[in-house]
Amino acid sequence: MKITWITARKLNRDLASSTEIGLGNALDYLGNEITIISPSSKLKSINIKHLEIKYWRFIGMETFSGSRYLKKKKIISKKKLNYPEVILVDWRYVPSIYPILNNMGIPWIIVDRGPPAYKGFRTMIQKILWKIAWKKSIKYSKGGFVVSEFHKNMIDANNDNIRILMAGATKNKENINNNITDGIWKFIYIGELEKTRGLDDIFLLSEHLKKRNIEHIIDVYGDGKYYNKLVSKADKNNNIRILGRVKHEGINKIMLKYNFGLMLMPDDKIWQISSPLKLAEYLNSGLIIVGPKHVGNELLGGEEWSLLSESSNWVEGSIDKIENIIINNKVQYLADLAFESSKTLHWESIAKQMNEDIKYMIK
C-alpha cells in the first residue's frame, strides 16, 4: 500500500516519536510505500520519504501554524502525495484539515496516541479540539487507532474500525547483560520532565535505598518545564543525576547500562489511558520495572520482572522487592525475562497487525 502519515510530532526532538519512526520503518519493510509528513527535519534513523511541516515555535501555536502551512502550501493533494491509498492523520491536525481530506476522496484514518495530558487553559482548548477531531473522524474517516482499551472506551464509539495500536520498541541488537560490575545498582527514567509524571518520587526512592545500604545511581534523561526544579533538588543528592535531553538514536545503547527502569506516572486517569512507550523500550533493554502499579504502567500484570507496587505508597512497597532480588542474585534472571517479554512489542510485530487493520478499515 501507499501510505501517507501526517503527524504533529517532531521526529528529531520528541522522544515519543519512536512510534512514527519505528512503525514507519517496519511498515516499509513489509513492502508498503511510506511517506511521513511532520514538523521536523528528516532523521538518519528513518529510511522512508519525509516531508517537513514548517511551524511557528511558540507554545500553543505549533499545531495551528502547522495546519496553516499544510493548507497554504497545498501539500495535502493527490499529486503531491503521489496518489496514496490511505492517509493516517494525527488527531491534532484533524479539526483543521478534515475538509481537505474529504474532498480528496482518499480514505483517511485518525491516529490518537493520547488525549491532552496536562492542566491549564491551553489544555482545556486542546481537549475541545480533541473532541472535535473524534466527532469528525467518526463521521468521515474509515477508522482510528488508539493506545489502549481504556482509551477506546473514553471515545465512547461503538465502532469495530477503532483499533488498539500498542507502544513498541525497535529490536535491540545488543546483548542483554545486566550483571553488576561496580557494586552500584543503576536506575533510569527517560521521558518528559513534568511534575505531573511523578518525578518527585525519585528523591524518596533514593532515600529509602540509602536506608537499606543499597548503592545506587538514578539517572534522569529528558527535558520539560520541571527540568530546572529537578536539577536544583538533585544538587543536594549525589545519587541522582539530571542529564537532560538525549538523541533518539542513542536511547537503546544508553538503557543497556542500567538495571531498573522507572515507570513513575501516578495512578491518574490520563496515565491509565496510555500504552507507555517507555515500558516497551525498558523491556527491550532487559530492565526490571519499578513504579506505582496501575493499568497504564503494566503489560499484562503479574510478570516476574515487574516490581510495581500499590500506588498509594509505591516507594516503600518497592524497596523490599528490590532488596530481595539483589540479595538472591535474581537481577540477571529477571532481565532475561523482561527482554523475552519485549519480543511481542517489537515494531515488526505491531506493524504486521497495523497493516492488517488498515486493510480491513479501507476495504
Can you walk through the features of this model?
There is one protein chain. This protein has 363 residues and is an alpha/beta fold. The chain is built from 13 helices and 14 strands. It has helices at residues 18-29, 62-72, 94-104, 121-140, 149-155, 201-211, 227-234, 251-255, 269-272, 277-284, 314-327, 331-342, 347-362; strands at 2-6, 33-38, 49-52, 86-90, 108-111, 143-146, 162-164, 185-190, 216-221, 240-244, 260-262, 288-290, 292-293, 309-310. Strands 3-2-1-4-5-6-7 form a 7-stranded parallel β-sheet, with helices on both faces. A 5-stranded parallel β-sheet has the order 10-9-8-11-12, sandwiched between helices. β8 (185-190), α6 (201-211) and β9 (216-221) form a beta-alpha-beta unit. α1 packs across α13, α3 (94-104) packs parallel to α4 and α10 (277-284) crosses α12 (331-342). The protein is globular, with a radius of gyration of 21 Å. The model has no long low-confidence stretch (mean pLDDT 85).
Concise summary:
With 363 residues, this protein is an alpha/beta fold. It has 13 helices and 14 strands.
Feature tags:
single chain, 363 residues, seven-stranded parallel beta sheet, five-stranded parallel beta sheet, 13 helices, globular
| Total strand segments | 14
Element order: H for helix, E for strand: EHEEHEHEHEHEEHEHEHEHHEEEHHH
Low-confidence stretches: none
Helical residue percent?
25-40%
Radius of gyration: 21 Å
How are the strands of the biggest sheet laid out side by side?
3-2-1-4-5-6-7
- Secondary structural class: alpha/beta
Number of helices: 13
N-C termini distance: 12 Å
**Which term fits the overall shape?**
globular
Sheet with the most strands?
7 strands, parallel
Overall pLDDT confidence: 85
